Automatic annotation (TrEMBL), chain A:
DUF112 domain sequence ranges: 20-438
Lineage of source species: Bacteria, Bacillati, Actinomycetota, Actinomycetes, Pseudonocardiales
Parts of the chain that traverse the membrane: 20-49, 61-82, 109-132, 144-161, 167-184, 204-223, 322-343, 355-378, 390-407, 414-435, 472-491
Pfam families cross-referenced by the UniProt entry: TctA
Presence of the UniProt keyword Cell cycle in the record: no
Full protein name: Tripartite tricarboxylate transporter permease
InterPro entries xrefs: DUF112_TM (IPR002823)
Keywords: Membrane, Transmembrane, Transmembrane helix
Species this protein is from: Prauserella cavernicola
The keyword Membrane belongs to this UniProt entry's keyword annotation: yes
UniProtKB/TrEMBL annotation, chain B:
InterPro entries per record: BUG (IPR005064), Bug_dom1 (IPR042100)
Gene3D superfamilies: Bordetella uptake gene, domain 1, Periplasmic binding protein-like II
Keyword list, A-Z: Signal
Name recorded for this polypeptide: Tripartite tricarboxylate transporter substrate binding protein
Amino acid sequence: MDVWQQLAEGFAMALTPTNLLYAALGVLLGTAVGVLPGLGTSLTVALLLPLTYALDPTSAFIMFAGIYYGGAYGGSTTSILLNTPGESSTIVTAIEGNLMAKSGRAAQALATAAIGSFIAGTIGSLLLVVLASPIASLAIQMGAPEYLSVMVLAFVAVTAVLGASRVRGFAALGIGLMIGMVGLDPQSGQQRLTFGVPQLIDGLDIVLVAVAMFAITEALWVASRLRTAPEEAIPVGRPWLSGRDLSRSWRPWLRGTVFGFPFGAIPAGGAEIPTFLSYVTERKLSKHPEEFGTTGAIEGVAGPEAANNSSAAGSVTSMLTLGLPTSATTAVMLAAFTSYGIAPGPQLLQSESELVWTLIASLFIGNALLLLLNLPLAPAWAKLLRIPRPYLYAGIVFFAVLGAFSVNTQAIDIALLAVIGVLGFVLRKFGFPILPVMMGVILGPEAELQLRRALQISDGDVTTLVSSPMTIGVYLVIAVVIAWPLLRWLVGRVRRATGDRPDVQGDRRS
Amino acid sequence: MRRLPRSVVLAVAGCLAVSACGVTAQGRQETGVRNLTMVVGNSPGGGYDTMARQIADVLGKDDIAAGTRVVNEPGAGGTVALQQLVNDGGSRAKVMTTGVAVVGAVVTNNAPVSLADTTPIARVLEEPMIIAVAADSPYRTLDDLVEAWRADPRGITAAGGAIGGPDYQQVMLLAKAIGIDPTTVNFVTYDGGGELLPAILGGKVAFTASGYAEWADQIASGSIRVLAVSGEQRLSELDAPTLREQGVDLTYTNWRGFVAPPGISEDKRARLVELFDQLHRSPEWQRVLERNGQQDAFSAGPEFEEFLDRQQGLVKSILADAGLR
């Protein structure tokens, strides 16, 4: 096939020692940037643009793609080990990943994240090869009503698995929505909850809230129990994935990939929504629901980690096929294309086919390099947890503060970090879940924006929200999610009545 | 989340272009300004940031001023940095980037300080603005759009960047010029080109007002049609008539420049103005502007001071007309 032949030529180009070196440099840099909270991959690429001018375009893009993919890997490492998400796409990973780390399964969590990212990144890159043009037209068809319906789906799905207390879950969601509300109302320019502080006009940075809610809260929690609870050492456990881990991981990897790719490819999609959706799906489908929220379930790491990497692949697809920057990082990469005199857009695959195929090939190579880099490192990283807790958490707080400060270099961000950290501690003390808070912070403002944009474009006509096949389809899925317990009960009854032995649950287990 | 300034793509591209050309020093006299700090009230990679970095580069290459440093103090569209500039004692050589978006943000955010509290230094460049639609839009000409818009002001959606910014001002001024009540204008904000472009191409919004350079690629490839350019003259690279030619009495351009802390000495001010005057006379700088699709618009002294004053009044009246203040 022509496509595969071109891809093979791309590999031939990308596998030169020089390009391999740039790929390696890119993934190393990306991993480092991902590990440090606050330092985003988009900023890194932006700052590197002038430095790489001396490079030929191929080498430069190979390096940028390496940084982009590497960032997604690195962010998960700190999420799992230190409960400190380095990137907003790895917030969900922290939930089960850190619990796994505390029960001595850090190496397994890191390994499933690394392999899941590799598989998702590779499949995503393959999808890029075959699906480029249908994805391009999907991106143009998606409007505000369609985005809103998908966000409502995420809200409903996460709320449906809130855990023990629904009241606490909803209260946590409300707190998250309130935090997300801070800042300028995008449609009217009015300030909300800024208390006259100009630094709050842009709203609270998601990474800052996440770092406060996870890392600072965790440090306070540990500190509050140091005197009373004996310092139980975190068990180190086995270094590698067992066959059982693998068999529990491969389905979440594939499902996560399916979630992530389309979201990455559409302009307002991003990596956050698919990680949420993947998490709740795995929680619903898992055969070990008791591990979620207690000892940490490997499915809850494998799915979201695959989702965020395949979302990155989706973003690159949009960039290459449409010239659409669907993430901050790809926006900066597009700037680099323009500066080389290459017009991104539908003609790119024809006019610069060699560059594009080399870049695509380098995505596969970058993924492989990341796996080689991260898999052997997993047991080594896991040993980090042997550091005595007072020192370990001092280090975590140090990096959290550094990260919060580096986002905007404003001292007020450190104060916000402390305030939100204390809030998180109080929430945890009284048994409120953190996931709905984070979802409110991330998706609340986006959902509001899309709802108001949709209504503004339709001039107040609410039927615009269900005016396309896609929105109707998504709302039907939402209806099924809400009615699921009832449906399952009904199906079970009918089956029992007709004498069918295997019920719905049984089907899935077989 | 993805709050990336729409101009980032172009901007960073220009940044690269600058570093591209090694240029011989012009052997000009130094202005005596050393270690100048350029404060950018926006994130790295945006339009203001790129302008500052390109200028710092030219100042160094042409020996106009040595050791120029660019510092980002992002927040509220430049309002945060402006507040810090106004509170600055002015002991060190310092200027801050400003322009339509900063004036707009300061007024829109109801900031306690304004550009009147600063020492105006110079305007350095202008960017042409365009009124554009998708290639398959039913509006073939500006007249088509104006007619439809007059018939149904709420039904025609305009799209662009932040409230109070250049795109917004352009749309409101156009509405007023053709006799549409600005309070009825349906202006939809989009954070970045990433969401705006598909909204236009997919026909979700009727038209956009925007900087020309941001859509130069799409215009060249024919996916976006320009109905009008808003400046005094047509653009050489674009076959589109001005608003005036089509019977709309309006000219509007986006501009960028610099202000310094309040209360600096006359001598200091004169030297900073001289610095930007030398920049304006640098062939290297002119090349940078051309590459960015921008135009030289040097203006300083009382002339710039009055201009800045009128600009603030303009933004206030636009927001008042739209019923926001």
